[in-house]
Amino acid sequence: MMKMLYSAEAIAGRVKDLADTLNRSFKGEKAIHTVVTMNGAHMFAADLCRQLNVPQVLHFTGGSYFQGAIKQEIAMNPETLPTNFNLAPVLVIEDILDSGNGIRRLRQILAERGAGPITVVALFKRVGSPAIAEHAAFSLPKELFVVGYGLDMDGRYRELPAIYTFETTITGGQQGIC
Fold this sequence. Notes:
Layout: E1 2-6, H1 8-25, E2 32-38, H2 42-50, E3 56-67, E4 72-75, E5 90-97, H3 101-112, E6 118-126, E7 135-140, E8 146-147, E9 163-166, H4 167-171
Parallel strand pairs: 2-3, 2-5, 5-6, 6-7
Antiparallel strand pairs: 1-9, 3-4, 8-9
């Protein structure tokens, strides 16, 4: 059974708050590069980008998770990014910051390609995550698996306007349920 964690209205409110903050940060910029990292970030990115008052060049790395031999790995295609950002500001939009490995590698790639200031904004940052984000809409306990608002379980539930968790992940904390 699914339980709503954040309503569509709560999400919209946080997106507006983040957009207001980013609009102040990017005020006066001619343009920024916006990099959407994970497939699950697409709804968050669309809502956030439409509220920004600065021209943007959008890039999608097409990232997704896949099961590696030992652990989950992140598949991201850096070839979708420019070879030179010419010191322009870069806004990175992420769905969930967990281990921080993916965002750390992306920051390195962006810096190697001449990015100006890099700002990371995430829909969620897991509690205890070592990942560095300048902004996060919400924090997420380690034991919760979430779906909706672009986030999925085996490709399902992305279309839901709110964010949900499964009761079993709250009460049992069992891995593999989702």
